[in-house]
Amino acid sequence: MVAMAGAPLRVLLTGPPGCGKTTAVVRIVGALDKRVRMAGFYTEEIREADRRVGFCWHRLDGRTGTLAHVKITSPHRVSKYGVDLATFEGEAVSVLDPEASDVELFVIDEIGKMECLSEEFVAAIRRLLKSHKSVLATVAQKGPGLIQQVKSYPGVELLPLTRENREEVTRQVADRLVSSTK
Fold first, then answer.
1. In 10 A of CB 90, how many CB atoms?
2. Does 76 fall in a domain?
3. What sign does the CA torsion over 100, 159, 156, 66 have?
4. What percent of the chain has pLDDT over 70?
5. Concatenated DSSP letters for 99-140?
6. What CA–CA distances, in Å, run from 125 to 12, 110, 140, 143, 176?
7. Which pLDDT belongs to residue 5?
8. Which residue, among 157, 116, 154, has the nearest Cα to 125 in the 3D structure?
9. Average pLDDT in the chain
């Protein structure tokens, strides 16, 4: 494993729902393979009988959990979904600590409404963007608070993703991250 060289990269992918942000992140992580020490998570829909019923998170080390579900009773809600903040914070957000590990690249999919209900998540993202670690994240196209703020953080490169450009953007970001490890 080769250490990442130079200034940290801070790449945020944004775009409308369904444009392939999560797919791009998963492909970029796969392209980096074991070359870079990474931590973080990506999210996916939970579907039952072709109907979306929730969202789960997958840490890069293989652990998984439910972020939100129609069957979760919680005071924290986004639309019809109850959000399980306690598990999300204890299991997913806990790996986003730049001081507690030798991780070179933090991966976050996504900085969105559900995730931003967690004050711990918001604080972790702010710490990461102020740290000397590289960050690859997706961010909702629209939204207040942290969703809007991260787009103008110093050193952040915001890349719009569309169905038409996602393959090219994915390849370019993966190539840049791979070359930064040499």
1. 12
2. no
3. negative
4. 96
5. TSS--SEEEEEEESTTGGG-HHHHHHHHHHHHSSSEEEEEEE
6. 12, 11, 14, 16, 22
7. 57
8. 116
9. 92
Q: Give the pLDDT confidence score for residue 179 in this predicted structure.
A: 76
Mapping DSSP to helix (H, G, I), strand (E, B) and coil, where does residue 83 land?
strand
Tell me whether the omega of the peptide bond preceding residue 110 falls within 30 degrees of 0, making it cis. yes
Write the pLDDT tens digit of every residue in 140-177. Answer: 999 999 999 999 999 999 999 999 999 999 999 998 88
- Asked if residue 35 has pLDDT above 90, the reply is no
Record the tokens describing residue 57, joined without a space. Answer: 């998170």
3-state secondary structure of 171: helix
DSSP state of 95: G
CB distance 178 to 31 below 8 Å: yes
Q: Is residue 22 in some structural domain?
A: yes
What's the CATH code of the domain at 100? 3.40.50.300
